[in-house]
Each structure stands twice: as structure tokens, then as C-alpha cells.
Amino acid sequence: MKLDVVYFAWVRERIGVPRETVETQAATVNDLIAELRAREDRYDLAFSDVSAVRVALDQSLSDFDAPLAGVREVAFFPPMTGG
Amino acid sequence: MVVRVQLEDFNLGQELDHLRAGRRDIGALVSFTGLVRDDTGDLTALELEHYPGMTEAALTEIETEARRRWALNDSLIIHRYGPLKPGDQIMMVATAAPHRKAAFEAADYLMDFLKSRAPFWKKEHGVEGARWVDAKEDDEAALKRW
Q1: pLDDT at B1
Q2: Cβ of A78 and B135 within 8 Å?
Q3: A31: CATH
Q4: Which residues of B touch A57 (CB under 8 A)?
Q5: What pLDDT is recorded for position A68?
Q6: In what order do the strands lie in the sheet with B89-97?
Q7: Do B135 and A10 count as a contact with CB atoms less than 8 A apart?
Q8: Does A60 lie at the interface with B, CB-CB under 8 angstroms?
Q9: Which residue of B has its CA nearest to A12?
Q10: A38 falls within a domain
Q11: Which of these, A23, A54, A66, B4, has the minimum number of CB atoms within 10 Å of its CB?
């Protein structure tokens, strides 16, 4: 399946692009992260400490063990600092 | 109930006037304004990044929950993005209610959730370079009191 993957803040800076389309068979967010980390060092670096990363599926906060079936957009970013 | 995510500045007085215009049922109007603070004296700019689409959805969800919990006449959230300077306004919330307790509590609630659940990220630019602002554990812990 094809997923739109978007990155924000330092996750975006480490990966080097704000958005990309990823062809993947990953069943969960954790699987997707493992696939990306195996691809290139920049992903490995960005996801080296996942406790510092948050995920949203189709623009709604989610968990790393959430399934990706039916999802179109996955976002990775650091804990939010609004206000 | 309004949520605005914008590049441009806002006028607090005008926003509050607009919120209460033509109404006779509001007894309390509370507002909070967040400003760019320079703690060390070397902040040159604060850059605010956000997630268009999710930001508006998250703020609307937070505001909807506040209005479910408190009897509000109206509410408003404005949050800016883009490059800001020390002293600039970052965001505001306003809550209107018949009585002050609901207005104060709802504004406090909006701020607590906005800080940790709305997809904004701050990057500080200083004379020594730039750094992303870390989320505070206190901010996450603050959600538990609701």
C-alpha cells in the first residue's frame, strides 16, 4: 500500500523532507518505523529514541501499535509545544 | 465558538469586543494571551511550525470538550504560526460565561490542552544558534487534573 508520511520539527529536519509517499506492507506504526530505520541512516537517527516521537494517523493522535489498514496519512513529530 | 490559526497578529481588544457584541447574557469574559518570552536576552526569533488541518481539528476538539464541560456563552482560540519576535503575541483564548468560575476554569482547561495536544512546535533562534523547545513534563502532568 501507499502511505503519505509527513514529518514536523526536528523529525522533519533529521529526515530531510517534510512529506513523502512510502510504499510499504507494514501492518502497524511500529512496523513502518522498523522498515524506515532499515532503509537509511537518516531514518535510523530520527527514530533512534521513539519515546521522543509522537504519531498521528489521518491527523488524529495515535499509538505505535496502531494498525495502518485504511490509513492514508501518517505523521511523526516531537511532543507538541503550543501555547 | 471559533478557532483561527493564522500568520498575522491579532487585536485582543477587538476580539473581545466582537465576542460580546450584541449580547446581554454574558456576565464574565476571561482571556489569556501568550507572548514570546526572552529568558536569556539572546532570543532573536521564535519560529512556530504547525500541522495544517490537524491543528484546526485538534483545537476544535479541545474547544468542543470545554463547552461540553462548562456552560459557556461563547469561546475563541487564536493561535499564530510562522516567525515571531520577543514580545510578540503567540496566541489567545477567550471564554464567555454567565459567571466567572466557568469562564476562568474553561480558559485554564483550553490552555492546558492546547499546550500538549495541539500540533505546534517552537524553535528558538538566538545568537548562539537555533534549538527546538522541549515539551515540559509539567505540561503533560497538568492534563491529569481535568
Answers
A1: 87
A2: yes
A3: 3.10.20.30
A4: none
A5: 98
A6: B2-6, B74-80, B89-97, B28-35
A7: no
A8: yes
A9: B49
A10: yes
A11: A23
Residue B26 corresponds to which cell in the numbers above?
454574558
Cell numbers that stand for B82 in this block? 510562522
As a whole number of angstroms, the distance between CA A69 and CA A5 comes to 14
Nearest Cβ partner of B49 from A8, A75, A83?
Answer: A8
Contact criterion met (CB < 8 Å) for B53 and A59: yes
A70 vs B: CB within 8 A = no
Give the architecture (CATH level 2) of B2-137.
Alpha-Beta Complex (3.90)
- The verdict on B133 touching A (C-beta cutoff 8 Å) is yes
* One pLDDT digit (tens) per residue for chain B, 146 residues: 899 999 999 999 999 999 999 999 999 999 999 999 999 899 999 999 999 999 999 999 999 999 999 999 999 999 999 999 999 999 999 999 999 999 999 999 999 999 999 999 999 999 989 999 999 988 888 899 99
Domain that residue A45 falls in: 2-77
Residues A21-50, mean pLDDT to the nearest whole number: 97
Instruction: List all residues of chain B from 78 to 117 with a beta carbon under 8 Å from chain A.
Output: 79, 90-91, 111, 114-117
For chain A, report the end-to-end CA distance as a whole number of angstroms: 37
Residue A6 and residue B132: Cβ atoms within 8 Å?
no
Q: Which residue of A has its CA nearest to B110?
A: A83
